[in-house]
Amino acid sequence: MSGNKSFFKEIKPNAPMTPYTPDNFTDTQLALISYIITISCTVAGLCLMTLTLVFTFGGYKTPVATVEAQIAKVEPVMIAKTIQPQLTGDALKAMLLDNDLWNIDANDVITPLVISAFPENLSSLAIDDKKKIFLHSLLPIALTANREIDRERLRLFDILASSGALPGNFRLDSIPVGWQDILSEDDEMWLVSLEDRYNATDIKALKKRMRRVPVSLVMAQAALESSWGTSRFAKEGNNLFGLRTYGETGITPQGVTGKSTYRVASYNTILDSVHAYILTLNSHRLYSKFRKIRLSTQDPTLLSKGLIYYSERRKEYVSQVNRIIKYNSLKKFDTVQLQDQNRTQLIILSKK
Asked: Tens-digit pLDDT profile for the chain (352 aa)?
């Protein structure tokens, strides 16, 4: 973990694929989107009459959420797996060039190229190439993980609107009486499962936790914790964030005795590692300050103050994260988007 000691538990994600919505929507906007999507066609005539009255008597303005609702419903993500044995740094650089991922500016729309692991020889490359390959390969992965959080969040609001009106706060282990006839079995089981996944006992807490993390912060912490993708844990277990596990599986750190209760978590893909990292920030009690700050801003420099317990180095760790963001101009990546939001094809590459 690059010499840092983490103080959180590792939680493996299980993000269902549901429609996309931008993270900066307010809860009210999301609820309105869900309501618009699920409104019965039987009231279409009444809606039309209402709009006519509005036009007639008082200056109609198109609701912003109405426009967003048109792009909220998307097809499930299509995944095409491409296996390339012994992926090298040069080969990955060529792929980034071929997919217009070598030169990326703010507000660009990029190809969703998702690799499963970094090349073994990444550390042997020139430092500028190594850093650029690492960052530009990680960017579409981080964007993909955030988009899945967005979809999960909108699914929550779809469920909350399924009765025709957004209900008040309630405990996740005590679904309101009468909903059993409204919710599908899958939706009810998924809703109950969120309590454990997000450490959230009620809907109010869940709404605060089920949110994206700026990709600039994802990239900075991944670079710091994995030594730009070259650490042992990054190579052996795709673990870019030093996440620990307390089960029997995982990687045993060097110098740790057999009596140790933890290991470093191992993941099948980099995307799995990013999912686990985001879920950790969204669920663990040590990052409550991070989540509180996030309610009012997505600025990674301000959000980093909520990472004070990520490392035993405390404030120095936070300062180091911010230096990486600043010196590598990572904030520009926060406005980058993935291509083809309605029908995305992910390319999974493997080094094995």
From this structure: 444 444 443 443 333 333 333 444 455 555 444 544 444 434 444 444 443 433 333 333 322 222 222 222 333 444 455 555 668 999 999 999 999 999 999 999 999 999 999 998 999 999 999 999 999 999 999 999 999 999 999 998 888 877 655 557 787 777 777 676 777 888 888 888 998 899 998 889 999 999 999 999 999 999 999 999 999 999 999 999 999 887 767 888 876 665 667 789 999 999 999 999 999 999 999 999 999 999 999 999 999 999 999 999 999 999 999 999 999 999 999 999 998 755 556 677 765 5
- Contact (Cβ atoms closer than 8 angstroms) between residue 106 and residue 335: yes
Residue indicated by tokens 């703010």: 106
Domain ranges within the chain, ordered by starting residue = 74-349
280: part of which helix (H) or strand (E)?
A: helix 270-283
The residue type found at 234 is: A
Counting every residue written for the chain, the total comes to: 352
CB neighbour class for 267 (10 Å; exposed up to 12, middle 13-18, buried from 19): buried
DSSP string, 101-118: -SS--TT-EE--EEESS-
CATH class of 74-349: mainly alpha
CA-based nearest residue to 272, from 252, 249, 243: 243
Contact in structure between 276 and 254 (CB atoms under 8 Å): no
SS3 33: helix
* Euclidean distance between CA atoms 159 and 180, whole angstroms: 12
